Amino acid sequence: MKNISTVIILSVLAFSVSAQKVITTINTGNRVEGYNFKYDNKSGSFVYNDYDTTAKKNVIITQKGKSRQYDYSVQYSALFDADGNVYNYAYNLVTDTVYKYFLLKNGDEIDSYDYIGEGWDINNNVIYFLAKEGGKAYIASYNTKTGEVNGGKKYDDIYLVNFPDQYYDEEPVGNIGFTKDGKPFYLAVEGDNKFLVIGDTEQKHYSDIDWYMTKTDLNGELTYVAKSKGNFYTENGNTFLVQGSKEYKSFDYIFGPVLFDKNNNPVYVSSDSIGDYKYRSRMMLGSKESKSYNGNIYEYKFTPSGKLAYVLTRDKKINGGDSYENILVIDGEEGKPYQSISNLTFTYGDVPVFTASNKNNKYFVVKDDKVISEKYDNIYDYRFFKDGSLSYIGNNFGDYEKQVPDKNYIYILGKKFGPYEFISMADYTAGKYILTDENDNYVFVSGKLIDRTNYYYKYKVTTNKWESPEYDFIDMVKMSNGKVIYVSGNYTDRTNYIYKYSLCINNMPVAEDYESISELIIDKNSGMISCIGCKNNSFYLLEF
Questions:
Q1: Which segments of 90-214 does DSSP mark as H helices, in order?
Q2: What is the pLDDT of residues 23-32, one digit of tens each?
Q3: Three-class SS state of 359
């Protein structure tokens, strides 16, 4: 039998740091904060925002130089070019309500503006960004190779309409978009008109455009919702979908998101008003209308075989009063009614699975119109493992005033875990509480409140192979090649919320006692794990 200490030593060596490279040391006399640092793996360049708490001023520090002081500067959205130059912007207050913005390269000022907006990007060595001067908005550009600065046509206002498709739990921020041939696109406002601009070409003008619903179809054409008369949110009618240069039929309302079938037909919901807060809705497939219903339609998608499925909220009368029911419709065929339906997915063979609730507000998982879970006050993050077993989180509400905590139970591979006071989201980019891999390994993070007065919590990681110690902080949980990676932290100063952080791989700390750990990345090809660690005023690139 092997000596246990030998096994532990060998396991630790297996995850020893392959490289611990000092990126830079910040010696300004101010407290060095990890979240003020951004690193570019490709070029090895960095940017740091040094904040002086006494002067209340910011200085940008880069590998190739630093800036003068500004009232505010931004490093989190900094851009890097192929030569390792870093670009960001800063501003100074002219008065309490007037600002002067500066475009910076390696801390040096390139140009100044009345305003520089978020959502900029670099494409073919050119940086495009929203700028304003003299009350007018335009798209400015800077060529990183030639140093040439240009400004596009000026409008009353501009909105950036390229939105991410990924999970987000806040209002999304638009970015400058690019067509498949590299032309920037955005929405412009001039007088009472709104219109898209592609490159330097204005598209057709409309009275209003719902800029949140701008999408690119399968052929690269921009698709959006417009009005020929009036404005959104103030009056109905005259609302239609535009795909490229094609306008579809007009309705009182158009709802998204816009999907596209395999033939590039847009799929969306149209509705007409039939009374106060009453609607008649139908699915649209290009110009083709499906059956109309008195109610609303949401959570529509295609089944694996390509059939259109959606959830219908239909009005109904109960004891003379208004009520509603939710019904899943697949290829025009209606299923059983429920109080609510959400989180619709499909297994092989177009079998629907979703979360539903009954008239008692109890939630459960339904598969092919059969209840396959226990009933709870809430159910979330369900999925199936390879053996066909169901995994989900069931939550029963507590009573905060009576100091009765919530009870959360996790069902995985036939096992029931809990109760836990709460389950933390493990992956914020995907909105997942339980992470799994192709081998049915799993990981989740649970927590409990240990101090109601100061709101101190303890967290731990649980997997199918081990359970971690309790920590004051757990973040950035990831799975890769059978390994579970996460960042843990414990307080060194509760009053000032100061932690010491460690990077852990399979429940073993492999990088310890850092003041911050950020930018955790796993290379999909090599499996290399890298992150940025900060301690003693120095930033390190850690690779495993």
A1: none
A2: 999 999 999 9
A3: coil
Q: What is the rounded distance in angstroms from the CA atom of residue 464 to the CA atom of residue 440?
A: 9
Write down the residue that tokens 């240069």 correspond to.
Answer: 245
Cα(94)–Cα(209) distance, rounded to whole angstroms?
Answer: 34
Copy the structure tokens of residue 448: 């409990």
Tokens of 335: 């299923």
pLDDT in tens, 328-363: 999 999 999 999 999 999 998 899 999 999 999 999
Angle at 403 between CA 401 and CA 404, to 5 degrees: 110
The helix/strand/coil state of 5 is: helix
Burial per residue of 122-149, b for 16 or more beta-carbon CB atoms within 10 angstroms, e otherwise: beeebbbbbbbeeebbbbbbbebeeeee
pTM above 0.70, yes or no: yes
Rounded CA-CA distance 170/428 in Å is 12
CB 89 within 8 A of CB 116: yes
Sequence-distant (6+) residues with CB within 8 A of 348 are 304
Q: What is the DSSP letter of 286?
A: T
Cα separation, 226 vs 223, in Å, equals: 10
Query: Residue 177's closest CA among 211, 150, 145?
Result: 211
